[in-house]
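User: Mind token order:
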Amino acid sequence: MSVTACPHSPARRAASKAPRSLRRRHIDPTTCERDYGPEELEFMQAIEAYKRSSGRMFPTCSEILEVVRSLGYIRVSL
């Protein structure tokens, strides 16, 4: 009698999800069906570039502010 892995084991579930999760990492949000303006595209591309260079898939608010400032945006006091 041979022992087979249980189809509901955590390792099997993780292995079955791996290809799908890797695929989602390469989806570019700029390819959605909505028409984005030039400023929106520039911002999304800057965020994507930051995520690739830093290796962080979910930048913090401080990191996003850093990207926004790197694009030349400044706060104007009213």
Observations:
- Residues 30-78 form one domain.
